[in-house]
Design brief:
Number of domains: 2
CATH architecture of the largest domain: 3-Layer(aba) Sandwich
Strand content: 25-35%
Helix content: 10-25%
CATH class of the largest domain: Alpha Beta
Structural class: alpha/beta
Number of strands: 17
Largest sheet: 7 strands, mixed
Amino acid sequence: MRNNIRIVYMGTSDFSSKILEFLLENGVNIVGVVSQPDKQVGRKNKLENTPVKEVAMKYNIDVFQPIKIREDYKFIEEKNPDIVLTCAYGQIVPQGVLDIPKYKCINIHGSLLPKYRGAAPIQYAILNDEKETGITYMEMIKQMDAGMMYQKAYVDISNEDTASDVFDKLLVRVKETIIPFLDDFVEGKVVGTKQNEEEVTFSKMIKREDELIDWSDTKRNIHNKVRAFNPSPIAYTTLDGLNIKIISGEEVEEAIDGEIGEIVKASKDGIFVRCYDGLYKVKTLQPAGKKVMEARDYLNGNKDIVGKKFYVREVL
């Protein structure tokens, strides 16, 4: 399969780039790559290639970066693909593209469908305290993530896993399954299964207000938010009017009285904050304009924080 079947790969993210590189390393015939437009980053607004584009350039694969794929997909038509394979591309793929390949457009979706259709399935699985998630190889149709399911690969989510950890686990499972799946699909050995619409849930795009920690929430929900938004976009709180990103922490069984959001204890072990049902210990954080640091290092310059409060926005 891998030398004869022509595949156009559509993706943008770092996760997607690692899958593309694996396919290329293993002789899969990627005839073209479609990625989001490059973005300006940093204070100097330097134009930075997408991770997928970087891999494509490394292997001398033609790259196309339309501003709106629904308006411009001649590149894909000219590549005459047997399969269009997508993973974390970032735009809705129009019917015109879905009609191009000889076989199908196939998406590598980061959840166990029909749960968590949408843009942030891994983050929402952690937010909702799921104990497992996975990858679903699925048919792409006009409706978002609603096509036939071809195959699933499962991974566990441990109590301390961040989104980064889960991405790493999923990447391992993709590497184990994707080439055998594509072989079986082309040979007609794969049978699709319809999604049960009664079991559908969605993972909406994460907005800035979603990242703010609500200290009136349970310590478990706070811990899940910190894990879900690591490595990006990172959950945050405010202290003395300044934002502080919370990189890592843990639930604490110790009982200390205090008001919601109050810093009731600070030591070399961490910063202990009162929430709805107990304490949450902040272990690693990033104050505005500074580098990521351990709580003990932050305390060296902020020895008087006990008794202060982390405030949250009223919208939460």
